[in-house]
Every structure is written in C-alpha cells, then in structure tokens.
Design brief:
The chain has 642 residues and is of the alpha/beta class. The chain is built from 20 helices and 17 strands. It has 4 domains: 62 residues, Signal recognition particle alu RNA binding heterodimer, srp9/1 (2-Layer Sandwich), CATH 3.30.720; 172 residues, Rossmann fold (3-Layer(aba) Sandwich); 71 residues, Helicase, Ruva Protein, domain 3, CATH 1.10.8.60; 173 residues, Up-down Bundle (Methane Monooxygenase Hydroxylase, Chain G, domain 1), CATH 1.20.58.
C-alpha cells in the first residue's frame, strides 16, 4: 500500500475514534440537560407548589420539579423576597458561589483526560508497530546498522601490518568503483569474502576500510543478532537485511562472528538448533539463490572457520577466504606507527626494537601496548613517552603488574637471584638461544622472578638444537638451587620450568619425530582450535608399550638437559655467582648490563634527570649518582620462573 494512503487511513480512524469518544463522554450530560424558563414562570411554579429543590448560584437559579420531570434553570433580577417565598412553600434551598467559568473549563479538561490518555497510548503502539527492529511487532526486522561518514571514514591508510589481506580486498574495492571493468570481460566479482584469523588482528577494521575506500554504504551486524527466542525471527531478519541492502546497492554487508549462525547443520539437538538452521538456510538462499544480488557484497569474519557449514564456504557464496594472521616484525612496526600518530614520543623510542620484542602480538595487543605506555607516562608526570614506558608496559602486559606489596625475605630474594642467574648463564652459553634481554627478581604476576630473551626476528619453526637448548635453560634454575643451597633445600620455585620442559619434550617425541626409538611418527590425535590457540582434546591412541617408550624418551631428554645445565654452571660458577650478586643489588639487569657484570664491571647510571627511575631500572638500591648506561631495549620472550 502507498504510504500516503496508509497515513490517510490512519488519521481517518483516529478521527472516527475521537468523535465516538466525544459522544461517549457527552451523552450522560445530554440526557440530564435542564430547560430554560422565564423568571415569571418560575415564580408561578413556586406559588403553585410545583418546585421541589432550588440551587442559587449568584443570579443563576436551577432546580427540579416535584413530579421529577426534567430540571429547569432561570436567572434572578435581584428579587430580595425570593428566599422568603421559597421558604413559605417548603422548597429545599441550596446556595453555591457564582462560577467564573474557570471551573467549568477545568472540569471540561478533566472529562477529556481519559480520552487523551487512551488516544496517546494507541498512537504510541501504532507508531511502534510501523517502526524498525527492536520495536513492538518488529521482531523480524534486521538489526543491521548502516555506518556512514558520520561514524568516521576508515581507509586502507588506517590499516597496517596485513598487506596481503589488503591486496586480496582491493579487487572488491575496484569492482564497487567500476563494475563494468570486470563485467565486460565476463568476470564475476566474488559474492562473499570470509576473513579468518585470530582475535584482534583487524578483521572488522579491514571490512570497514573496504567500504571507506569504495565509498559505499556499509551495513554491520553480529552473527548472534539473528537468532532470538521466537521461531522464524532469524530468517525474517536475514530477508529484511538483504531488502535494506538492495535499496542501498551497491553496498557491503559485514557479519561479525558469523560462526554464531553459520555452524554445521545437524550438529545439535532441540528446537534452538532448528531455528539456527532456518536462519542459515535463508542466508544461503540470499547469497546464491534465484534472485541476483550482484551489487551486494557480503564480508564475514570469524576465528572458527573449522565449524562453518560447507555449503556456506562453497564457490558462489564465500568464494574467497582471506587469512588475517598476527603481524610479523615488519607489520608490527607499521601498526605501531599508526597507533603512535597522536602520542608524543621521546627521541630514544625505537619502534623497530619494540616490534622485535613483541612476537605473537596482534594489532589489538599493540594498540593496548601504546595506550598503556601513554598512561604510564601520564602517571609519571612526563611530557613525552619514553622507551622506559614501552618497556614497563610490555612487562605489565606479558608478565603482569609488579607486586609492590610482596614482602620477600632476604633468604627468598637470595634464592630467587641464584635461580634466575642460573637461567641467564645457561641462555648465554647454550649452543642455540635467543639473545638475553633482561633478568629480574621483582615479583610480577605469579612469578617471583624472570629471565627474558629477545628474538632477533620472528621464529616460524624450531630446530632440534634450539629445543635442546631451551630444555637446558629451563633446567638451569633447579640446578642453580641445588648447587647453592644443596639438594635437600631445593624448592618448588622450578615448578613452571619443569612443566614447560615436560610439555616441550613430549611434543618433541610425539609430534615432531625427534626420537630415534619412536621414529618419525606422530602419536595421538590433536584437536586444536585453528586460531584460538587452545586444544580441545588430545587422545593418545597408543599401546601401553608405546606409552612406556614415550615416557622414557621424555625422561631421557629432560635428564640430558639437566646434565647439560650442571656442566655449564660448573664451568661458569664464577660468572653465575657474580650475576646473582648483581641481581641482589640491582634487582633488574638488561642484557648489556649482565655482560658487564660477568666481565667484572659494574653497571652505572646517572640519576640526574628530573624523572625518578622505575623500580625495575638498573640502579643500585642504595642510590647514588652514577654515569648513565644504555637504555634497556624493548621486547621480550619470557622464560618464567615461579
């Protein structure tokens, strides 16, 4: 129906209801209406005894007859003998003040108040029924939001660190700008693009940048917005969403977390699953059904591509899957440059060093790192963000905040210092290890101390020599405790080291084929989330005899690492003790300062600037003004010790 005719019909109904309600309220008054009589007739009726009651309100006189007929009203010319005449005939007399008209107006409004309230409520519900999603009777309306220039335009300039993903999406932008370029050669642009990758890598930002580059409407909705408690709502919302998109074509529809609605059909039980399947079926039809939606491009994001229905991923629907991984070292530097645009940096800040020290960080993690650094600088009353803030922010994000309230005894500090010194000496002397970056005995998170190594670049695979060296480094803390305090005084501080070493050794034996006895065979069925990083289940489908061999091989690798750690600490006992004493004195040492201590030199730093040093800076706890050494570099790969 034409909207104009619909509105006209609506107002006609409102007018009819108004007239009906007016008549309803006015009918009782009409039934009891009084007739006007001349004053002379009134006097004759009084004299004849036909008047029963009289109400006098100023000059206005109203009353009733003795025969209970309709009432009467008249006006007095100011007759002073009227009251005595009425009393002589035993007429009941009522007196009221003369009305000025305001009371009648107020009463008139009061009489209309219920009608006005009913009418207002009715209009409210009618407007709600005609509105979009989220309103009464609007359950089937799409919850997709249309983002415009007012929400902030995002382009490819705002996206960094995912160059390959941007290249895959440039074709989408070109098609939206110039569709004839592809159509005249018989080419068809992908109907849908699925962005897959770990959380925080910028999948949503990439989708917004495509819309910003092409300058087309951008509808965004979450996968969980489709399914509600009412049957049929999800499919209705899918239809309504595509109807809105057709009106704004060419445009982009972005569905975030599509795994909420696009899971394998038949994977669950109950009516809720049936409703989800109906929604998915409607989405499949809209993407590639009888009707053509070539000017509508669907972009979806998920970190669970393994649970999506195969029909959703086939060509013609999501033709292209774009992997958005965590950025590499070059990508991290570019992302940092984007996020520090509005952050005043000190000259000593080297973003390349920060990028080196943040392997595995996503774009969201790097944004959080920059924000934490700025907040720390503000708390320290600095005008610029220095490298120290980036270093402390990384420590806080990766290891937890400093436990300043932790009161360690001198014996505990000494044990922690020798434990961490053992890790550090092993890291400097094993055949293959990342460069030593920092050692600290300041409690952070659940660890009493920590040794960190800074990789020179992103590591995508590990060699056998590198893993054997890691096992030896992990055993260095326990060996150091045994050498210094005796085997009977070793503590549980190496629990995390032993746990990590056991996991690494078992993976070497069962997954990577680093055992001569077991050969190049993978044991166990590992079911891991592709991008979420945690294992759902791992079944060990091996015989009891093979399980015993696996345990023996794991034990052998760890025993060899323990022997290697013993051998190195025995040879480097002097350096190990010097480093432990340095940690007791300075609490935190950088890699360069550790090398200075081992060489017999003491690190010194100038405290002459107006900014107090952080607790973790390499300054003697006794204080003093000393020559300032090199700034600690950013980044770390922790080898924690509890």
């Amino acid at each position: 129906m034409n909207p104009n005719y619909r509105n006209l019909a609506l107002w006609a109904i409102i007018a009819v209801l108004l007239i009906a309600l007016f008549n309803l309220f006015q009918t009782p008054q009409t039934r009891g209406a009084s007739s006007d009589v001349p004053y002379s007739q009134f006097l004759q009726d009084v004299a004849a005894g036909r008047v029963k009651t009289v109400t006098i309100a100023g000059a206005r006189i109203s009353g009733t007859y003795t025969d209970n007929s309709s009432g009467f009203q008249t006006y007095s010319p100011g007759d002073p003998s009227l009251v005595s005449r009425l009393q002589d005939k035993n007429v009941t007399i009522n007196a009221r003040p003369e009305s000025d008209g305001s009371n009648s107006l107020f009463g008139y409004l009061i009489s209309w108040l219920p009608m006005i309230l009913i009418l207002g409520v009715w209009i409210f519900f009618m407007r709600q029924m005609q509105s979009g999603s989220g309103r009464a009777m609007g359950f089937g309306k799409s919850k997709a939001k249309l983002l415009t220039e007012a929400h902030g335009r995002v382009t490819f300039q705002d996206v960094a660190g995912v160059d390959e993903a941007k290249e895959d999406l440039e074709e989408i932008v070109e098609f939206l700008r110039d569709p004839q370029k592809f159509q005249r050669l018989g080419g068809k642009i992908p109907r849908g693009v699925l962005l897959v990758g770990p959380p925080g890598t910028g999948k949503t930002l990439l989708a917004r940048s495509v819309a910003g580059e092409a300058n087309v409407p951008f509808f965004t909705i979450s996968g969980s917005d489709f399914v509600e408690m009412f049957v049929g709502v999800g499919a209705s919302r899918v239809r309504d969403m595509f109807d809105q998109a057709k009106k704004n074509a060419p445009c982009i529809i972005f569905i975030d977390e599509i795994d909420a609605v696009g899971r394998h059909r038949g994977a669950g039980l109950g009516g809720g699953n049936d409703e989800r399947e109906q929604t998915l079926n409607q989405l499949l039809v809209e993407m590639d059904g009888f009707e053509s939606n070539e000017s509508i491009i669907l972009i979806a994001a998920t970190n669970r591509p393994d649970v999506l229905d195969p029909a959703l991923l086939r060509p013609g629907r999501f033709d292209r899957q774009v992997v958005v991984p965590n950025p590499d070292i070059v990508g991290r530097e570019k992302i940092l440059k984007v996020h520090v645009r509005n952050v005043p940096l000190a000259p000593n800040v080297d973003l390349k060093v920060v990028a080196r020290g943040t392997p595995g960080f996503s774009g969201a993690d790097l944004m959080n790192l920059v924000n934490e650094s700025a907040l720390m600088a503000a708390r320290r009353n600095k005008r610029l963000v220095t490298m120290a803030e980036f270093e402390d922010a990384k420590d806080k994000i990766m290891m937890g905040a400093e436990r300043r309230s932790s009161a360690m005894t001198q014996a505990e500090k000494e044990l922690t210092a020798y434990h961490e010194a053992g890790h550090a000496i092993l890291a400097l002397n094993v055949p293959s290890a990342d460069p030593l970056h920092k050692a600290t005995i300041i409690p952070r998170g659940r660890a009493l101390g920590m040794v960190m190594q800074l990789p020179e670049g992103d590591r995508y695979s590990m060699s056998y020599k590198y893993m054997i060296s890691r096992l030896a480094i992990m055993m260095g803390g326990r060996v150091a405790e045994e050498f210094k305090f005796g085997k009977e005084n070793i503590t549980s501080g190496a629990s995390s080291d032993i746990e990590q070493a056991t996991k690494l050794a078992r993976a070497m034996v069962t997954r990577w084929g680093f055992s001569d006895k077991l050969g190049h065979v993978a044991y166990g069925d590992n079911q891991e989330e592709v991008f979420l990083g945690h294992s759902v289940a791992r079944t060990q489908n091996v015989s009891e005899e093979t399980a015993q061999i696996i345990d023996a091989e794991v034990r052998r690798l760890i025993d060899e690492a323990y022997s290697t750690a013993k051998s190195i600490l025995t040879k480097k006992k002097k350096e190990w003790i010097a480093l432990a004493q340095g940690l007791l004195e300075y609490e935190t040492l950088s890699g360069d300062e550790i090398k200075q201590l081992i060489a017999g030199q003491k690190p010194s730093r100038d405290l002459g600037d107006d900014t107090p040093p952080s607790r973790g800076s390499a300054v003697p706890k006794s204080g003093g003004r000393r020559k300032k050494g090199p700034e600690p570099e950013g980044g770390m790969e922790p080898q924690p010790s509890s």
